[in-house]
Every structure is written in structure tokens, then in C-alpha cells.
Structure to design on (360 residues):
């Protein structure tokens, strides 16, 4: 049995206002908290025991998932009292692990949507004899990421910070946020202080001569750290582009949850999700967007690539394109919000045809 650690303690600052009341892994994607997709895929790969490393709004996880028995898992929760970084968080949950020193432990970042073959990563780790194995993915523009070059056998040769010049881009392989650690390596991480696996643990292991192995898996991969990426990820789950057994009712062009009230002539396309108890008015169109529980979309509104928070109200004929509206906010009729505008939770924008965009 392989067990796993899920790192779900981040504040999700880049996702605000979505994370004001909800931790990032609990924001609904394709109708369920994003964490549900990660847990379902782990279970499908044979994982039975998962320890959640929590911190920000830690109190919301256990009431929702309980002991994990409904998912066929045994879940445990460990809360950081102060931020410990990725490595510190991993070390902090070590006492809850059951693996022996030479057994593998899966570790996932809580904000990555991926089609990674989890079983293949564990098998690669075992057959290569690695101390740590990393899921690597290839990206067209790696400048925003740390680079992880490997040799012909897949052994990691370096960890390079974000490149600044073309000459520094020696590979298109980046750290994709999923790992397999031998349990003994987890126990070697310093205890009780902040530690970054990317900046301290991995380079330190490499310098000490440890075997770090990279498995390149170029299936679907998306960092959900921004609102635009989160909306895209949810739509891709609904459309079936990103695999998950947790999507309610299977995949299609739209997902309308129980209790939603959608007018007959409304157009819902592009992987749109309409949450439970939400209402969408006559003549409205919603494309590639997520409308959370209890939100209201007025008659004739046009919503594209946007996220509407729980209980928010969008007025009649209002146009949103690439916008985020926080929980309980109101955008009056005949407004136009474009290109990354964010409306804070509970904010009120009056009607009257006011135009907003993030570059103004």
C-alpha cells in the first residue's frame, strides 16, 4: 500500500477574492471541491491512506471529508501552527505516516490539476532505486518556472531557478509538483522550522549525492494558482480534457448541479458549471465559466471565462469577460467587466453602464 501527503496549507493569495472565505483546495472545480479530484485520482491509483497538511482555514477540511471512508480512503489531518514551507509541512506530518524507512510516500501539491499516471511514477521510483522521484512536465515557455534537467537515464542533474536569459534555458522540463519520497528522506528533513523542498531539500540532496530521478509525463497539467487558470481547469474537467472520476454525472459541454434554475433559452457552453441553487435568467449566455452555489445571473447577461462567487448577483445585460466576482458581491445591470477585473466579496457595483477593466 502506498500512502500520500497532500499539501493543502497555502493561503491562495493569487486567487483572492476566491480564497477569502475558502481555502484554495476547497474552491469548487467542476461541481466539487478541487481537493475531491485529487483524492479520487489517488484512490484510483491504489492509495488508501492520505495525510492532509493543512494551515490556512484548516477547520473546513475535516467537516467536509471526515475520515475519508466515503471515498474509500483513510484521511488524517495535521495543522501547522505557523508556516513551515513545503519541506517543513512534509516533515510536520511524518509522525502520521505508516511506511517503513525504505517504502515510498507520494506527495502532491494541492493546486495542481494533472493527468499524471500516478502508478507509473511510483513504479519508476521503485525500479530506478531513487531516493526521491519527481514528476516533470514540459512547457513551451519555462521562464516562469524552476528548470529540472536530467541525464539520459532520467537522473536529475541540477535544480535551476527561473532563467533570465535564453542561454540559461537549458531544458523545457519543470517541476510539476508531485513527488515520491523514500520515507527515510522525509525523516531527514529538519524539524520545527520552515523548509523549502525546491530551494533547500532537493539541492541539498543532490549535493550530498542522493539519487533524484525525474519522470517526464506530458499529459494534462495546469497550475491553478490564478483565477483565470482555475476557471480554465474547471471547464477542462467538465469537458473531459482533464481526467477525474469525481466529476458529478460525467463529462459534457456543461454541468448543472441539482437545485439550479436555468431558463430554457439560456446558452451554457464551454464546460460551464452552474452551482446548486443558482439561477440563470432568460436569454443569458455563460461560456467556459463557473457560477457557484446560490449565485444569480440576470436576464440577457453574457458571462465568458469568468467565476461568479457563491451568492453573488450579476445584473441583467451585464457583460463579464475574464472577470472574478467574489462571494455575495453584486454587479448591477448593464455593466461591462473585462480582462482580469476582480470584484471583492460583498462589494456593490451599481447599474448604469459603467465599464471596468484591469488595465484602467
Amino acid at each position: 500500500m502506498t500512502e500520500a501527503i497532500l499539501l493543502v496549507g497555502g493561503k491562495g493569495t493569487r486567487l483572492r477574492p476566491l480564497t477569502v472565505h475558502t481555502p484554495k483546495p476547497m474552491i469548487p472545480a467542476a461541481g466539487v471541491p478541487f481537493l475531491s479530484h485529487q483524492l479520487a485520482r489517488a484512490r484510483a491509483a491504489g492509495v488508501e491512506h492520505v495525510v492532509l497538511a493543512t494551515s490556512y482555514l484548516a477547520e473546513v477540511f475535516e467537516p467536509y471529508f471526515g475520515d475519508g471512508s466515503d471515498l474509500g480512503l483513510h484521511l488524517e489531518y495535521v495543522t501547522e501552527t505557523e508556516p513551515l514551507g513545503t519541506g517543513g509541512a512534509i516533515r510536520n506530518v511524518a509522525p502520521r505516516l505508516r511506511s517503513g524507512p525504505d517504502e515510498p510516500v507520494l506527495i502532491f501539491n494541492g493546486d495542481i490539476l494533472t493527468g499524471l499516471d500516478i502508478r507509473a511514477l511510483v513504479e519508476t521510483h521503485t525500479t530506478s532505486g531513487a531516493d526521491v522521484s519527481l514528476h516533470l512536465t514540459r512547457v513551451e515557455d519555462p521562464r516562469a518556472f524552476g528548470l529540472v534537467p536530467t541525464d539520459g537515464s532520467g537522473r536529475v542533474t541540477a535544480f535551476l531557478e527561473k532563467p533570465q536569459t535564453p542561454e540559461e534555458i537549458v531544458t523545457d522540463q519543470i517541476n510539476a509538483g508531485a513527488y515520491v519520497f523514500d520515507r527515510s528522506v522525509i525523516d531527514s528533513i529538519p524539524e520545527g522550522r520552515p523548509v523549502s523542498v525546491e530551494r533547500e531539500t532537493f539541492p541539498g540532496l543532490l549535493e550530498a549525492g542522493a539519487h533524484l530521478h525525474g519522470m517526464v509525463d506530458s499529459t494534462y497539467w495546469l497550475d491553478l494558482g490564478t483565477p483565470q487558470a482555475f476557471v480554465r481547469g474547471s471547464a477542462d474537467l467538465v469537458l473531459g480534457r482533464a481526467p477525474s472520476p469525481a466529476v458529478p454525472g460525467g463529462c459534457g459541454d456543461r454541468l448543472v448541479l441539482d437545485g439550479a434554475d436555468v431558463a430554457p433559452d439560456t446558452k451554457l457552453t464551454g464546460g460551464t458549471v452552474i452551482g446548486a441553487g443558482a439561477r440563470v435568467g432568460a436569454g443569458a449566455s455563460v461560456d467556459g465559466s463557473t457560477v457557484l452555489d446560490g449565485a444569480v445571473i440576470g436576464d440577457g447577461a453574457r458571462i465568458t471565462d469568468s467565476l461568479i462567487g457563491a451568492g453573488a448577483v450579476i445584473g441583467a445585460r451585464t457583460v463579464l469577460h475574464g472577470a472574478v466576482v467574489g462571494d455575495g458581491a453584486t454587479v448591477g445591470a448593464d455593466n461591462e467587466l473585462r480582462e482580469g477585473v476582480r470584484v471583492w466579496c460583498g462589494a456593490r457595483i451599481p447599474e448604469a453602464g459603467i465599464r471596468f477593466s484591469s488595465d484602467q
